[in-house]
Amino acid sequence: MDKAICLVSGGMDSAVTLAIALRDFEVHAMHVMYGQRTQERELQSFRDLVEYYGIEQTLIISMDYIQRIGASSLTDREIEVPMRVGDKGIIPNTYVPFRNAQILSAGVAWAEAVGASKVFIGAVEEDSSGYPDCRESFFKAFNDAVSKGTRPDTKIEIVTPVIHLSKTQIVKKGLELKVPFELTWSCYKNIDKACGECESCQLRLNAFRGAGIEDPISYELK
Questions:
Q1: Greatest CA separation found in the chain?
Q2: CATH number for the domain including 22?
Q3: Above 70 in pLDDT, residue 86?
Q4: How far is residue 180's CA from residue 183's CA, in Å, rounded to a whole number?
Q5: Are 99 and 138 in contact (CB under 8 A)?
Q6: Of 221, 137, 215, 145, which is closest to residue 183 (Cα–Cα)?
Q7: Residue 80 domain flag
Q8: Is 58 exposed, middle or buried (0-12, 13-18, 19+ CB in 10 A)?
Q9: Would 60 be classed as within a structural domain?
Q10: pLDDT band at 95 (very low <50, low <70, confident <90, very high)
Q11: pTM for the whole thing?
Q12: Does a structural domain hold residue 141?
């Protein structure tokens, strides 16, 4: 099988993306720690997922400088995490400046090193938080940069298989692929029991409600 890198945050979108990639590729799984509030819990989800799927080639990278850059409630504990879904068209303070470009750069570098032809990322544009680095136009531009910035014989493509799915559609796709959602983590605030109030928790809970099933993880509030 051809090789592919899959960026696995530990959330449900990346878990479904991982399951999709595994259908056609020998997957190398990458996880990035950047000083986010729930870093420890997300790392545990990553480890649980790669163990569940029996993925042998893994890479865990620290980008703690992203925390030092700051300007996001995910990395700066003095900025309060919003406790509701944000208004459409307004980018919430949970946006981490240009995070996906930095993570993708590491993914592409690993892909070039091991001879992988794809880099999978579970970005969602249509039913998410409006982050600018989750837009299809961004990934198209990044693919152009990859083409220009790698060796002439290197062919690497950024793949975003869930980018146009709603969160509910992602849950349904995960159920179809038998994704172990109980191993995933989405909360922006807590590492033990999901808060149920932050934007990410609310989007996740609404997605499971839309799919007509119970979310298998525990919440403080629902």
A1: 52
A2: 3.40.50.620
A3: no
A4: 6
A5: no
A6: 215
A7: yes
A8: middle
A9: yes
A10: very high
A11: 0.97
A12: yes
Residue 84: the pLDDT is 75
**What's the confidence (pLDDT) of residue 173?**
98
At residue 26, what are phi and psi to the nearest 5 degrees? -80, 110
Amino acid at 83: M
Count up the domains in the chain and report the number: 1
Return all residues near 61 (Cβ < 8 A) that are at least 6 apart.
Answer: 30, 31, 32, 33, 106
Do 188 and 74 meet the contact criterion of CB atoms below 8 Å apart? yes
Helices first, then strands: H and E counts in the chain: 7, 5
Residue 99 lies in a domain: yes
Q: Are 69 and 97 in contact (CB under 8 A)?
A: yes
Q: Which of 130, 65, 129, 70 is nearest to 102 (CA)?
A: 65
Compute the Cα dihedral for 124, 216, 58, 103 and give only its sign.
Answer: positive
Residue 184 near residue 10 (C-beta atoms within 8 A): yes
Q: List the structure tokens of 37.
A: 């509030």
Q: Which domain holds residue 39?
A: 3-211
